[in-house]
Structures are given as C-alpha cells and as structure tokens.
Known about the structure:
Blueprint lengths: L2 E5 L2 E4 L4 E8 L7 E7 L6 E7 L5 E3 L7 E6 L4 E6 L8 E8 L11 E4 L3 E6 L1
Parallel strand pairs: 2-11
Antiparallel strand pairs: 1-3, 3-8, 4-5, 4-9, 5-6, 7-8, 9-10, 9-11
Amino acid sequence: QVHLVESGGGLVQAGGSLRLSCAASGRTFSIYFTGWFRQAPGKEREIVAAINWSADSTYYGDSVKGRFTISRDNAKNTVHLQMNSLKPEDTAVYYCAESRTNYLSTTPRSYADWGQGTQVTVSS
C-alpha cells in the first residue's frame, strides 16, 4: 500500500557520517510511525529509530542514541536518518518501514510496508 525507497547508504570510515533518506509514495492510509531498522548477516532485524507523523514522538535504540537523529519532511514525504560517529558494528542493511499502529512500536512485526534496504558499511 506504500512504496518506500531508501537511499544514502555506502562505505564510510569509522567516525564518519552518512545521511539516509526514505521516500514514500502510493499511500492509501494515514501515516502513523516511520521506523528505521537494520539487519546484519546472521542477526535479527533491530530497531534503529522511529518517528511519528507530527514528529513529536521519537525513539532511538540504545546502541545509536546520541549518534543518530531521525527527522521527517512531510511536504516532501521523506524521512531521514542522520548517522554520525559511525562504528564498524553499525554495518548492516538499513530499512525504512511504515507502522501498522498509531502507537510507537520497536518490533518489526508492527511495521507493514518496507523498503528494499540500503547497505551501510563502516570500515575500521
């Protein structure tokens, strides 16, 4: 019901920065929360950050708190993830997703529409 496209991934050295973008189109229902998740090989998909439509509610995973910032521009129908002070353990495929619920959830099963992902690789 919603088409999401991530961009901005790439290769960066430890301590560097990247800004990921998620562009949405084809919405047929109201937006509640947009989340960023990541998944490294052999590991479970985990929450990175989430933000609601009005941007008055945000969440950050413990491992990224203080380093990453989620924001949105509703006029452009985009959500961004600014990633600073990147570490090798941040290496993963990063996905954006739209939630099924009107309350904040940190679990992937609460998000219905997913992008294809963008690879972030942080070298040491």
